[in-house]
Design brief:
With about 600 residues, this protein is mainly β. The chain has a domain of about 160 residues. Helix content is about 10%, strand content about 30%. The chain contains 6 helices and 33 strands. The strands form 8 sheets. Strands 2, 28, 29, 30, 31 and 32 form a 6-stranded antiparallel beta sheet that branches. A 5-stranded antiparallel beta sheet has the order 1-5-4-3-33. Strands 6-7-8-9 form a 4-stranded antiparallel beta sheet, with no helix packed on it. Helix 1 packs antiparallel against helix 4. The radius of gyration is 23 Å and the shape is globular. GO terms for molecular function: carotenoid dioxygenase activity; metal ion binding. Its cofactor is Fe(2+). Belongs to the carotenoid oxygenase family. It comes from Rhododendron mucronatum var. ripense.
Length: about 600
């Protein structure tokens, strides 16, 4: 499920900060379940970023990886960093007191020993472009380009509470050209990341795990304010992690996290990743943007929104085909702050889901929970607004009891625009979204909204626990037939992929699964991504292409890049690339063609 870095804390100038375990607390919090690997041995110096060694970091020796893979780029060894300043040392001491005595990580959902176990553990360093080995099959020519997967990778091991969504964004890029591949893993160099790297320690607390009750919120909030007032951190430069997803529009590539503005990045010819900077689109984009913008491949336009804890709780906007931002459309008819992670578009409308998850300040202050929580008395609604609306006057809200979505798969118009159809995984146990993801069950549904009568009908598409679903990107906003979804076993681990034929649901079939691929014993992957075999062929069939994802074998501690045939009966393997280093589990990915890479 998406790390969703909440805009709630944007308004408080607080950020998702991974934390480092100092010597003074190493005896209190033992992160024994975290496995961190060193970079593969090489015969030359590399451009890998290094930091002052943290006394608390237990670097467990990595499994044997191929020793013949060599980084492509090299650089002189970096100069060792000076010791932390007196101010940093004092602030870190106060952090230790809060994390040890006021708010220790007592719940499994924020306990680093649990959250960072197995392949959720961060990799200790960046990886420069490193050659990979194709161990099975052949990489198809249409994969020339780059597959990029975003996800959390905390720069410093937590010394206190840590949630899965709290890590710094790291991009894992496999660059493919003429049948060969290189892997590169780089942090998104956000303002928060660079300040903390320079400081040598975290500056602000984690968003999803740092505000558990009144005492913890007051203590961490006060310490954060003092750090800001002393000039250690300027929140106006951004507080986000850019750890959730990626988007390509306006001939630019962006790393996204919904608590901040987009960060422009590029992939170089040799497969390296460079952060170009935070983008506000000529001052027209304020505070934050969803991590799930929708690109219309026919018009070239991009549609997006932001949400927050103060009115307007929802603001809708779009970018033209050149990437220029248009005017905001504030939506005041959403009267409570709801958790809006994703949405959908059609040719005529944008569709928003107001679900039972929302901002929960009372629980944060008087209880011991997250600032985002479930409200069981709230009735979920779907809001339909004209796609090119100038204001919210034409938005219509439809109550859909029990329909809670985190991700939307697709939507389209029917009956000449009088009907809107939406396909999305419905979270049947939404109260567990943040605290017990292993208890979540997401059932894909097709929802039909009759705009004339106001009648809403729902029909199941699959009963299996499915999320992180994708379609052929060219079908966004158009009626599509096929969906490719990840199997939760349980979430957040993904044991395989299914192919759904949504058209079967129109004949009252309750399970529209037409193909299933299980990765194998001890093997888990991530969100699949569909790459068309002939992207420029308008006559190509919708499913004529490939599914790609990273897969990790927990038995051998090795990761691979898997290519599957989307049209094949069982999503058979087309190619497997053995990666030179472990790729941790993450969130959302994107494939960028060679042609689009050159535009960067």
């Amino acid at each position: 499920m998406d790390p969703f870095s909440s805009s709630f804390l944007s308004s408080f100038s607080l950020s998702n900060l991974p934390l480092t375990l100092p010597p003074s607390t190493s005896s209190v919090l033992r992160i024994s379940a975290v496995r961190i690997e060193e970079k593969p041995p090489t015969s030359t110096s590399t451009t890998t970023r290094t930091r002052t060694p943290q006394p608390s970091r237990r670097q467990i020796p990595s499994p044997p990886y191929p020793t013949k893979t060599k980084p492509i780029s090299t650089n002189p060894p970096p100069t060792p960093k000076p010791p932390p300043s007196l101010a940093v040392t004092i602030f870190n001491a106060f952090d230790d007191i809060i994390n040890t005595f006021i708010d220790p990580p007592t719940r499994p959902s924020v306990d680093p020993k649990h959250v960072l176990a197995d392949n959720f553990a961060p990799v200790v360093d960046e990886l420069p472009p490193t050659k990979c080995t194709v161990v099975s099959g052949v990489l198809p020519p249409c994969l020339d380009g780059a597959y990029i997967r975003n996800g959390p990778n905390p720069q410093f091991l937590p010394r206190g509470p840590y949630h899965l969504f709290d890590g710094d964004g790291m991009l894992h890029v496999i660059r493919i050209s003429d049948g060969g591949a290189t892997l590169c893993s780089r942090y998104v160099k956000t303002y928060k990341f660079t300040i903390e790297e320079k400081t040598g320690s975290p500056v602000l607390p984690n968003v999803f795990s740092g505000f558990n009750g009144l005492r913890a919120s007051a203590a961490r909030g006060a310490l954060s304010a003092v750090r800001t007032l002393t000039g250690m951190f300027d929140p106006s430069n951004g507080i986000g992690l850019a750890n959730t997803s990626l988007a390509f529009f306006g001939d630019s590539l962006y790393a996204l996290g919904e608590s901040d503005l987009p960060y422009a990045v590029k992939v170089t010819a040799d497969g390296d990743v460079v952060t170009l900077g935070r983008r506000d689109f000529d001052g027209k984009l304020f505070m934050s943007m969803t991590a799930h913008p929708k690109v219309d491949y026919e018009t070239g336009e991009t549609f997006a929104f932001r949400y927050g804890p103060v009115p307007p709780f929802l603001t809708y906007f779009r970018f033209d085909s050149e990437g220029r931002k248009e005017a905001d459309v504030p939506v005041f008819s959403m009267t409570t702050p709801s958790f809006l992670h994703d949405f959908a578009i059609t040719r005529k409308y944008a569709v928003f889901a107001e679900i039972q998850l929302g901002m929960n300040p009372m629980e944060m202050i008087f209880g011991s929970g997250s600032p985002v929580g479930a409200n069981s008395s709230k009735i979920p609604r779907l809001g339909v607004i004209p796609r090119y609306a100038k204001d919210e006057s034409e938005i219509r809200w439809f109550e859909v009891p029990g329909f809670n979505i985190i991700h939307a798969i697709n939507a389209w118009d029917e009956d000449g625009g009088d009907t809107v159809v939406m396909v999305a995984p419905n979270i049947l146990s939404v109260e567990h979204t943040l605290e017990r993801m292993d208890l979540i069950h997401a059932s894909v549904e097709r929802v039909r909204i009759d705009l004339k009568t106001g009648f809403v009908s729902r029909h199941p598409v699959a009963s299996r626990n499915l999320d992180f679903a994708v379609i052929n990107p060219k079908c966004a906003g158009r009626k599509n037939r096929y969906v490719y979804a990840a199997i939760g076993d349980p979430m957040p681990k993904i044991s395989g992929v299914v192919k759904l034929d949504v058209s079967m649901s129109e004949s009252d079939r309750c399970d529209c699964t037409v193909a299933t691929r299980i990765f194998g014993p001890g093997c888990y992957g991530g969100e699949p991504f569909f790459v068309a075999k002939e992207p420029n062929n308008p006559e190509a069939e919708e499913d004529d292409g490939y599914l790609v994802t990273y897969v990790h074998n927990e038995n051998t501690a090795e990761s691979s890049f898997l290519v599957m045939g989307a049209k094949s009966p069982n999503l058979e393997t087309v190619a497997v690339v053995k990666l030179p280093r472990r790729v941790p589990y993450g969130f959302h990915g994107l494939f960028v063609t060679e042609t689009n890479l050159k535009k960067l």
